[in-house]
Specification:
Blueprint lengths: L10 H11 L9 H5 L25 E4 L2 E7 L2 H14 L8 H12 L3 H5 L4 H7 L8 H4 L6 H7 L15 H9 L1 H17 L8 H41 L13 H4 L4 H9 L9 H15 L29
Length: about 325
C-alpha cells in the first residue's frame, strides 16, 4: 500500500482494481470499502478472503463484445497480439515477443530464475535465456560498461517514434480499391443480405461471412506490415539526407495521437499524468489513479462517449432530452 516507487510499478494497485471490478473479495464491494480495510486489533497481519465463486476464475480474461469475458482466460495468442500491437504503436520495427520479455527477466533475476520460471534444470536457462556476450573484462578481471552493448541488443535500437501505425490515406484507398478487396466486400455484402436482421451465429452463412471478414483482416494486416517495413527501409536514407542538408528537427510533429484525444478520455488522461508520481495507494494521488484504473476495468460500454455525455438510465443526459441511447 505504501510504495517508495512510482505508481506504475505498484502491481497491487492494478490487481486491486481488477479484483474490485470482479467483486472478488468477501465483505469488500467497492474501492472505498477496500481503502478502509485495517489490521484488526492485536493482529500483526490479516488476509483478505476471496468469495467462493471466484476462486477458479482467471484474473486476466479474454475480451468479448460486452466487455471482459466472465470465464475465458486470456490466451497466449491474445496476449502476444496485444504486445505486438503495443510495440508497433510505440514505433518498434520488430515484433515484441513474449519470450524476449521472459528472457530479459531471466537474466535479471539470476539466482531465483529457476524457481520463478519453473525450470527443472539450469540447462534450460543456459541454452535458451543466458546472454551469449563475453568481453575482455572477463579476462582482465574488471567490470566494464555494457551500456552500448545493451543498447544494440535492445528493441529501442530499432525503434522510431515516427513509424507509421496505420496505412496513410493514399495507401488505404489503394487497398480498399484493389480488385481482391472489392471482391471480398461484394461477397460480404451478399452474405449479409442473405442472413437478415437477426442472423443465427451458428448458421453456415454466418460462419462463411466470418471467414470473409477474417481474410480481409489478414490482407489489411499484411498491407500494413509491408508498408511499415518499406518505411523503415527508407528511413535511414531520409534521415541521413536531412542531416546532410542541415535541416532542423520538426519539434511540432506529433508522434502519437494520444495528446490530441486525451481530453476525451478523462480516466486515461489522469492516469497518464499520475502513474509516474511516487506515492502510496493511501495518498490522494494513489486513490485517484486506483479509481481510474477500476473505472476502465469496469467499463463494458461498446461505445466510447465524450466526458459527461454517457447515457443516464439508458437515455441522453442532456436536459430536456429523453432520447433512448442504443449502444
Amino acid at each position: 500500500m505504501n510504495s517508495a516507487k512510482d505508481l506504475q510499478r505498484n502491481g497491487i494497485m492494478f490487481f486491486f482494481a481488477m479484483a474490485i471490478a470482479d467483486k472478488a473479495f468477501k465483505g469488500y464491494e467497492t474501492l472505498g470499502d477496500l481503502m478502509r480495510a485495517r489490521l484488526p486489533r492485536d493482529r500483526d497481519s490479516w488476509t483478505l478472503e476471496w468469495k467462493d465463486d471466484v476462486c477458479e476464475r482467471p484474473v486476466l480474461r479474454m475480451a468479448c463484445p460486452n466487455g471482459v469475458d466472465k470465464t475465458r482466460a486470456l490466451t497466449f495468442a491474445a496476449l502476444r497480439d496485444q504486445i505486438v500491437s503495443l510495440g508497433k504503436r510505440v514505433g518498434y520495427r520488430d515484433n515484441v515477443k513474449v519470450h524476449a520479455i521472459r528472457a530479459s527477466v531471466a537474466n535479471k533475476i539470476k539466482e531465483i530464475r529457476k524457481r520463478l520460471l519453473g525450470h527443472k534444470s539450469t540447462e534450460i536457462f543456459d541454452r535458451h535465456y543466458a546472454s551469449k556476450i563475453v568481453d575482455v573484462s572477463e579476462y582482465l578481471g574488471e567490470t566494464s560498461s555494457t551500456k552500448n552493448i545493451e543498447m544494440l541488443r535492445s528493441m529501442n535500437h530499432r525503434r522510431d517514434r515516427h513509424a507509421p501505425r496505420d496505412l496513410p490515406r493514399k495507401e488505404q484507398d489503394e487497398f480498399d480499391q484493389s480488385p481482391e478487396v472489392q471482391e471480398l466486400k461484394k461477397s460480404m455484402a451478399e452474405a449479409t443480405a442473405k442472413m437478415g436482421d437477426k442472423p443465427d451465429k451458428n448458421s453456415a452463412q454466418f460462419k462463411e461471412r466470418q471467414k470473409l471478414y477474417t481474410k480481409k483482416g489478414m490482407l489489411l494486416r499484411s498491407a500494413k506490415e509491408s508498408f511499415r517495413e518499406e518505411w523503415f527501409s527508407a528511413s535511414f536514407d531520409k534521415e541521413a539526407l536531412r542531416q546532410l542538408q542541415q535541416e532542423e528537427d520538426d519539434e511540432t510533429e506529433q508522434t502519437s495521437t494520444f495528446p490530441l484525444i486525451r481530453h476525451l478520455m478523462p480516466e486515461r488522461d489522469r492516469i497518464a499524468d499520475t502513474l509516474f508520481v511516487t506515492k502510496g495507494l493511501q495518498s490522494k494521488e494513489g486513490q485517484a489513479v486506483l479509481q481510474d484504473v477500476y473505472s476502465l476495468c469496469n467499463d463494458d460500454n461498446q461505445v466510447a462517449y465524450r466526458p459527461d455525455e454517457q447515457p443516464v438510465d439508458g437515455v441522453c443526459p442532456c436536459s430536456n432530452c429523453s432520447t433512448v441511447i442504443t449502444e
